[in-house]
Structure formats: C-alpha cells, structure tokens
Design brief:
The complex is a heterodimer of chains A (159) and B (144).
Chain A lengths: L23 H19 L2 H21 L5 H10 L13 H22 L5 H19 L3 H16 L1
Helix pairs in contact in A: 1-2, 1-3, 1-5, 2-4, 4-5, 4-6
Chain B lengths: L1 H24 L3 E3 L10 H4 L7 E7 L4 H16 L3 E7 L4 H6 L7 E6 L4 E6 L4 H13 L5
Parallel strand pairs in B: 2-3
Antiparallel strand pairs in B: 1-5, 2-4, 4-5
The chains are: A mainly alpha (159), B alpha+beta (144).
C-alpha cells in the first residue's frame, strides 16, 4: 500500500466533522412531524393520545436508527431528495439522533401522563414538540442538537 | 374544535416569533463593552494576527454553522490583505471560552490590528455580517 502524503500542519487546527448525513433530511422530517403534531392537537381525548403515541413511536425509531433511519428520513430519501441537488456539505449524525431521543422523551412522557390520568398532558407535550419541530423545519434551529452540543461542551470542560 | 384550532395557531405563532428572534441574532456584531483591555497576541493563538483585523473563530465538533462561517471568513480574509481568520477548537481552548464567556459555537471574536477584542459574532455568519463587523470596527477606533 503506497504511503499517503502528509498534509501540511495548520497553525490552529480546526476540528474535523465526521462525514455524515444530508442536513436537509432532519429538517424535512421535522416538517412531517410538525404536521402530525398539529393533528394530535386537533384531535379529541383518546384519539389524541393514540396519535401522540404514534409520534412517540416514530421518534423511537429515529432514536434507535438516527434521524436518517426514521420513517420521516426514509420518506425524505425516497420522495424529496431525488428532486434536489446533492447536499453542499454533510452534517454529523449524532446531534439529530439525540434530538430524536429528546422528542421521544417529551412525547413519551405526554402519553404516559395521559394514561395515568393527568389532564392536559397530551396537548402540552404535543405543543412543546410542535414548537421544536417548527423551529427545526422553518429556521434550521434544532433544539435537541443544541442540547447534545451543550453536553459535549460540559463533558470536555470536566475532562 | 375552534379552541383547538386557536391553540394550534397560538403554538405556531410562538414558534415563528421565537425562530425569527433567534435568526436575527445570528451573526450580528455585538461590540464589547468595557475598557478594551482584553488583548490577544499571535502567541496566544498560535497564529499571526492580521495587521488590520482578525476574526478569531471558536468552533466545535459536529457544528455545521462553524463550517459555513469558517468558509465565509476564510474567503474574506484571503480577499483582504491585513485581515486574518484564525479558527481554534473551543474544547482545546477552554481558557478563551472562560475568559470571554463564550456560550455557543461558532463564536467569532473580532480583534483590531492591536489584538484588542472589540466585539463578537455568534452563530452562523454571512459575508455581509462579517463586512458589517469590519465597518463597525473602522467607525469606532479604539480609545488610546
């Protein structure tokens, strides 16, 4: 195997981001999730709880397989991405995946509390998740991703 | 049903307002208050400062806006002699993070020709915003 040429050292090396996912995928996914959450907010009683449980299940898939592996991510890849130019750059898959976990926690808590009889659990949980989904889809602000990055920084500060 | 529709519209309005506020703050130049004693040297940064100004960018891993900001500032620095762009990893320079209360990445500290920190830009920065920061620097020369 021929030796690779060494790249010249930079005076102030920038951290390299690992190759990753199309950054538009999670945003389109968030838009789809937002639509589902609007449905949850418009449905009455038990139907709303069931619909929120569906959203929570979708987040569970995303938390396990990454945002790109979620059902929304699959729809993005099959239906939307073929119509777009390739992404200008890729983003790290870890923060969006963590954001899916945050979504699961919020919507999962809503479903659990509703089953325990807590009034308003479903609308509150759905409203919180909807704000996050809209911020991500419309502005590219992924709150769950920011939480992940905060955690990374805290961990580095302690090391 | 009408009440629920109102709730949805209310939540969407909150999200949109919050998003617009957040977006308006990205990349906006915030001048430093205080005596301008915060000074950095090339030795502090491990790279030479620009003779006119320096953009000191603190970045982190897994940060897409850091990449785009670095591209913008790097291109601007290449086009303007006397302007330097230095990028450092926030995790490796916690001294800078603490000294300048850096809360998010990317944060770009704007240094004048003498290495004094005159202000900052946080969040994804466009070329227009970077140029506006340089103009602000020109308009307010540092106190002697």
């Amino acid at each position: 195997m021929p030796a690779q040429p060494r790249t010249p050292a930079q005076p102030a090396p920038a951290p390299a981001a690992p190759a990753g996912i199309d950054p538009r995928g999670p945003r389109v996914g968030a838009a789809l999730t937002a639509v589902l959450l609007v449905v949850v907010l418009l449905l009455p009683g038990a139907a709303a709880t069931a619909a929120l449980a569906v959203v929570a299940a979708l987040f569970a898939v995303g938390a396990a397989r990454g945002a790109q592996g979620s059902v929304q991510g699959l729809l993005y890849r099959r239906l939307v991405r073929p119509r777009l130019a390739p992404p200008a750059e890729l983003e790290d898959a870890r923060p969006p995946r963590f954001a899916q976990l945050v979504g699961l926690v919020i919507t999962g808590a809503g479903v659990l509390l509703a089953l325990l009889g807590v009034p308003g659990a479903v609308p509150v949980a759905a409203a919180l998740a909807l704000v996050a989904a809209v911020l991500n889809a419309a502005f590219g602000l992924c709150l769950g991703c920011e939480l992940y990055l905060l955690g990374v920084r805290v961990r580095h500060a302690r090391a | 049903m009408g009440l629920r529709v109102l709730l949805v519209l209310g939540v969407l309005a909150v999200a949109v307002v919050a998003g617009l506020l957040w977006r308006s703050r990205n990349g906006r130049f915030v001048a430093s208050r205080g005596g301008g004693d915060d000074r950095l040297t090339g030795a502090d940064l491990g790279a030479p400062l620009g003779s006119a100004a320096t953009f000191l960018q603190l970045s982190s891993e897994a940060c897409a806006p850091c990449r785009s900001t670095a591209a913008v500032l790097g291109a601007l620095a290449a086009a303007r002699p006397g302007l330097a762009h230095v990028e450092v990893a926030a995790e490796e320079r916690l001294d800078l993070v603490r000294r300048f209360d850096v809360l998010r990445t990317p944060t770009v500290l704007v240094l004048d020709g003498a290495g004094a920190v005159r202000g900052r830009l946080s969040g994804a920065t466009t070329r227009q915003q970077a140029v506006a920061a340089l103009d602000a620097l020109d308009r307010c020369p540092a106190a002697a």
